[in-house]
Design goal:
Helices cover 39% and strands 18% of the residues. The protein is an alpha+beta fold.
Length: 189
């Protein structure tokens, strides 16, 4: 039974032709695939992945994202830590932003982005902070009125993260209550 599961995972992760290779001789992307396949060997109901795509090329990172989505579709809950905000935006059902070990924002990527505004005006010189607007027309009007080189685009999770991290803690208000876990991917709670 174990050998069957190993063959299944090797095939699923495109590793069947590397089955006899030493892991230390594999590329970074193949090592990550092996790491995830090894974690899935016992068919876990929850999987913790710490920076699974750090340092990988974009094509390999996207392939691993696909594997993570497949694992989720099979019913496993995935807890993912990442510094790649676009990774959290692409993969997560819920995201927690942490500041000094405390959760300062928690929600779905769309909720966190919507809390800032649907459209962002970003000055290309980087001198002014990003400004957010509820609709595209208002954002375009503001960009035209500013006279500078302004990019108008949809708000991204990275925008919400940067703005949340810039917001100072409000004096006199308690810190957010500790959360037992922040499910960033997988079954919906």
């Amino acid at each position: 039974m174990r050998q069957g599961r190993i063959r299944e995972l090797l095939t699923r992760f495109g590793l069947e032709d590397r089955a006899g290779d030493l892991v230390m001789r594999l590329s970074g992307g193949l090592k990550r695939r092996v790491m995830i396949a090894r974690a899935l060997l016992h068919a876990p109901v929850a999987l913790f992945l710490d920076e699974p795509t750090v340092g990988l090329d974009a094509d390999i990172r996207r392939a691993i994202w696909g594997m993570i989505k497949d694992i989720q579709a099979q019913g496993a809950a995935i807890f993912l830590t990442t510094h790649y905000i676009e990774e959290a935006e692409a993969l997560a059902d819920r995201v927690a932003f942490l500041r000094q070990g405390e959760i300062v924002a928690l929600g779905s990527p769309s909720e966190l982005m919507a809390a800032k505004g649907a459209w962002a005006c970003l000055e290309l010189t980087g001198q002014a902070p990003t400004r957010f607007f509820a609709d595209r027309e208002t954002a375009l009007a503001q960009a035209a009125a500013s006279g500078g080189e302004i990019t108008v685009r949809r708000t991204m999770l990275e925008d919400a993260y940067l703005e949340t991290m810039r917001e100072p803690d409000v004096p006199g208000e308690p810190s957010p209550a500790p959360v037992a876990h922040a499910q960033s991917h997988g079954r919906r709670a």
